[in-house]
Amino acid sequence: MTKVFFKNLELEVLDSVYEPAEDSFLLAEQISKENLLGKKVLDLCTGSGIQAVIAALQGAEVTAVDINPKACENVSLNAKKLGVWKKVRVSEGNLFDRVEGKFNLISFNPPYLPADEIKDIRVEAEDDGRALIDRFLNTVDAYLFDDGKALMIQSSLSNLNKTLKNAEKNGLKAIVIGRKKVFFEEILLIELKKKDN
């Protein structure tokens, strides 16, 4: 187990769970600025639960989902440690498979690097880093309230233009609202909203 810090929060990260890094912190920074009191938040690919816990600390009712059972255990551990376990419901599942209802905010930090660039335990996919991104874009609209939004992390190596076109095709406005240059890539924070809002 390792410890990770974001602002004044100390999170524990279990073995075989993605350790929050620049991508997680870029998303966490934005979530910490959102007005989430009384709102419904869905955190997909929750990992250690950093986004779920931050949203819950701001008064949101959070559903945290991950396909990795160790990650589900991890988010529960951090929610208990930080006193928000009553506000975080954890579900083991593959993206939206076990999700019901609509949300004000959906956060999504998927395994996004092309397989030949992967250097950590997070991804086993043999694709161009778009498998989960495209599944998410094709489905997210159904889980957002009309005035809701999604925040998604993506690498510059995973074809931003394809993301923008796929969002458009699915009735979403997509804009890049944050960027972080790291090593061989740029991490992008993308905001998605329904077009008529």
What are the key terms here?
197 residues, alpha/beta, Rossmann fold, seven-stranded mixed β-sheet, 9 strands, 33% strand, globular
SSE topology sketch:
Elements: E1 2-6, E2 9-13, H1 22-31, E3 40-44, H2 50-57, E4 61-66, H3 69-81, E5 88-92, E6 103-108, H4 131-139, E7 144-155, H5 160-169, E8 172-182, E9 185-194
Parallel strand pairs: 3-4, 3-6, 4-5, 6-7
Antiparallel strand pairs: 1-2, 7-9, 8-9
Helix pairs in contact: 1-2
DSSP helix fraction: 25-40%
> How many strands?
9
Tally of domains:
1
- DSSP strand content: 25-35%
Corresponding CATH superfamily: Vaccinia Virus protein VP39
Low-confidence stretches: 115-126
Distance between the termini: 43 Å
Per CATH, the class reads Alpha Beta
Radius of gyration: 15 Å
Overall, the morphology is globular
Structural class: alpha/beta
The average pLDDT is 91
* CATH topology call: Rossmann fold
Q: Please give the CATH architecture.
A: 3-Layer(aba) Sandwich
Major β-sheet strand ordering: 5-4-3-6-7-9-8
**Number of helical regions:** 5
The H/E string reads EEHEHEHEEHEHEE
Q: Mind describing the biggest β-sheet?
A: 7 strands, mixed
